[in-house]
Structure formats: structure tokens, C-alpha cells
Design goal:
Layout (H helix, E strand, L loop, with lengths): L2 H10 L11 H4 L5 H29 L7 H33 L2 H29 L15 H4 L8 H19 L4 H20 L7 H22 L4 H4 L2 H19 L7 H10 L1 H25 L3 H8 L1 H22 L5 H25 L27
Helix pairs in contact: 1-16, 3-4, 3-13, 3-14, 3-15, 3-16, 4-9, 4-13, 5-7, 7-9, 8-9, 11-13, 12-13, 15-16
Length: 394
């Protein structure tokens, strides 16, 4: 469904650029291409699903009839079960590797500069725009919403994920290096956190930012626990094999079938109900989806196919930061100003704009040394070329 915009995305990657070619190949020991490429593939697919979900959600909030895309949105609800767990698993894999190269202080400092800083900066900017132009946007805001950045991040639309990754990363460092807790016990802690979150949600107790820590720490810990196995070049041939891909696909489809049985409505309201009242089944579904996504990513990297997905994954953080801004701007121009409500145009052009414009902005920022858009100023005084912004290692 996303083939149309891939052609446009591909053109973004051509030609000269002030951005150095720094990817996971530069971040990890260079031995096996599949081992190096798969996280970018996984994040590429996940961010495309995220952009599509937020695009459809914006059209629904604007009271637009999305027609046949209701069915696509139903399918996307299924994908909701694993796209974010997959993000956290990959984040855990890379965090475990990063901690081998950095001190705990340097690790936390880097995370604050490349995750917490843009979260606070662009979360605040989005709130400012929503306050300044209430007649043009879907969200209704007040000045008190700024306090939600720290304790109710879910109310700041898409940005909550960044805050969750930062908080989980800090907690992970405290437990691993501060309390000397081995990786396997992080899994146990993750299970306890996960079940505690389910209990609190059933009691309808508002836990704010703690909800995301409790809910997703298990997936982050799983990534940490599996990091050496997934990053070991000796395991790449097996992980990228056709047999592993088929087995994980069948398991994923069976788990999704369990979700669909007896579901009164395939919408996000039901999905939230399902995750709270069927925590074990949801976890199995999430792992099945993330497992298939990782296996598919290994397989694609071995085949060197759909390279554009890998490149999108390389920019996934910046797409995540900016896609809603560009999608909302496009919707306002087309619907409010030009009175164009063709759903096919809104969806396909929205996907293309939501993916390509953040990449173009990133390239432009690199050319003009606008590092402050993405990184806290404390990172500017490095030995690297000051006119370049490095890919975030998250």
C-alpha cells in the first residue's frame, strides 16, 4: 500500500548531501551486512505504520470520511500490537551495545541530548501551535498542557514515545550499573512491571508517565537480553533464513487470528481494552509480531531488497519528530483552504509528505548547521564536522 510514496522517498536519497554516511554499519563492528542492517529495516517498517496510523487518526478527528481506508485502519489496529514493542526491543538491543562503549554518565547524557531535548523542544512547539491556531487544529489545548510534558505525556499526542524511551533507558542504567542487576533479572523486573501496570489499569488508576515505563520496560529488557545473540554475526545466516521467516510469519498470523476471534470492534478502544484484560495473550501477540518483523528485516538485509525501507529506518527518529507537523499542515491546506476532501489524495500525499519532508528538513539542517533542531547544544562541541548532524543511535 505504500509503494506509491516509495518512489518519492527514493528521490530524497539521491544526489549529494552534507550528511556523512553514518549508520549502524559505523556504530557496530563491521562483519556481517545482515546483522548491521536489520535494525534499520525494522524501524523503517515500524515508522511507516506509525505515520499511517497518525495520518488516519488525524483525518478521523477532522470528521472526514476515509472510505475504504477504514479497512486499512482496521488492519493497522492489528499492527498496533507489535510496532511499538518492536521499537522498544530494537532500542534495548542498541542500548546494550552502546553501554559497552560508553560510561553510564555519557550514555544518559547522550540520551538526554538526542531524545529528551527534542521531546521537550518540539512537544512544546506543537502545544504552542495548537494554542495559537485552535481553529485550524484538531486538539483543544490550554496553557496547563505544558505541565503534561512531564507527567502526562500521552496527552501530548505522538511525542510520549520519546519520553518513555528516555525514562526506560535511565532506569535500565540505574538497575544495570548502579544496582548491578544482570540482564536476565531485568526480564523478571519487566514482567513484574508489566503485570503491575495491568493491575493499575484495571483499577483505572492514573499513573501518567509511569504507565509507559511499566508497560514497555519488559520489551526493552528483552532487547537487552537478546542483544548479543541478535548482533552476533555467526547467528545472522540462521536468523535471515527462509525457514525462520516462514515460522515467524505463521506464528504471527495465528496470534493475530486469536485477537480477531470474538472481537466486537477492531478499533483502538477495543485494543486498549484487550491489552488490559488479556495481558498474556497481548504479550504473545506483540512478541510474535516483533519476532516476524525482525526475521523479515534480517531476510531483507540478506537479499538487499527494499533498501528504501532501511534508509527510512535510519531517519526514523526524525520522521517521528516531524511527521505530524507536516501531515497536519497538508491537511489544513488541502481541506480548510482549498476545500479538497479526496480521501485518496489526502492519504497517499499525506504518507509521502509525512515521510519525505522530515528527511528533507534533516538534510537542510545539516547543510546549515541547525543542530539545535535535533540535539542539545552540549553536543555541539565535538570533534566531528560541526556542519553535520549524526544519525541518532537510538
Amino acid at each position: 500500500m505504500f509503494y506509491g510514496q516509495f518512489g518519492l522517498v527514493s528521490s530524497v536519497f539521491k544526489g549529494g548531501s552534507a550528511i556523512p554516511s553514518i549508520s549502524l554499519k559505523d556504530q557496530l563492528p563491521s562483519t556481517n551486512a545482515a546483522r548491521i542492517a536489520w535494525p534499520d529495516y525494522a524501524r523503517g517498517f515500524a515508522i511507516i505504520l506509525v505515520v499511517f496510523r497518525h495520518l488516519i487518526e488525524g483525518l478521523n478527528r477532522a470528521d472526514l470520511d476515509i472510505g475504504i481506508y477504514k479497512h486499512a485502519d482496521t488492519i493497522n489496529v492489528y499492527f498496533s500490537g507489535f510496532r511499538l514493542p518492536a521499537f522498544f526491543i530494537v532500542a534495548g538491543v542498541l542500548a546494550a551495545h552502546s553501554l559497552k562503549l560508553k560510561t553510564p554518565g555519557a550514555f544518559v547524557s547522550h540520551r538526554a541530548a538526542v531524545i529528551l531535548y527534542p521531546y521537550l523542544l518540539w512537544g512544546s512547539a506543537q502545544l504552542a501551535l495548537q494554542l495559537a491556531f485552535p481553529q485550524w487544529v484538531n486538539a483543544k489545548r490550554s496553557i496547563t498542557d505544558y505541565s503534561h510534558l512531564l507527567y502526562l505525556p500521552r496527552t501530548i499526542d505522538q511525542f510520549w514515545y520519546l519520553y518513555a524511551v528516555f525514562n526506560i533507558s535511565v532506569l535500565f542504567v540505574i538497575l544495570l550499573r548502579g544496582l548491578k542487576i544482570p540482564a536476565v533479572f531485568h526480564l523478571i523486573a519487566g514482567v513484574v512491571f508489566y503485570l503491575l501496570d495491568v493491575y493499575l489499569q484495571r483499577l483505572q488508576i492514573e499513573t501518567g508517565f509511569l504507565h509507559d515505563i511499566l508497560h514497555y520496560y519488559l520489551f526493552f529488557a528483552l532487547g537487552v537480553f537478546c542483544s548479543e545473540f541478535l548482533l552476533d554475526p555467526k547467528n545472522a545466516p540462521m536468523l535471515s533464513s527462509d525457514n525462520v521467516l516462514i515460522v515467524t510469519l505463521v506464528f504471527f498470523l495465528l496470534c493475530q487470528g486469536l485477537f480477531s476471534v470474538g472481537a466486537p470492534a477492531k478499533d483502538m478502544a477495543y485494543f486498549e481494552f484487550f491489552t488490559t484484560h488479556n495481558p498474556v495473550l497481548f504479550f504473545i501477540m506483540a512478541i510474535s509480531g516483533a519476532g516476524f518483523l525482525i526475521a523479515f528485516s534480517f531476510w531483507l538485509s540478506r537479499k538487499q531488497a527494499l533498501v528504501v525501507i532501511q534508509k527510512i529506518g535510519r531517519w526514523s527518529l526524525y520522521i517521528y519528530l516531524w511527521h505530524v507537523f507536516f501531515i497536519a499542515a497538508l491537511r489544513i491546506v488541502l481541506v480548510r483552504l482549498l476545500h479538497i476532501e479526496n480521501v485518496h489524495l489526502l492519504v497517499w500525499l499525506g504518507m509521502a509528505v509525512g515521510i519525505t519532508m522530515p528527511i528533507l528538513l534533516f538534510r537542510l539542517s545539516s547543510r546549515h548547521s541547525w543542530q539545535w533542531l535535533y540535539r542539545a547544544p552540549t553536543l555541539f562541541g565535538t570533534k566531528r564536522n560541526p556542519s553535520s548532524i549524526q544519525y541518532a543511535k537510538v
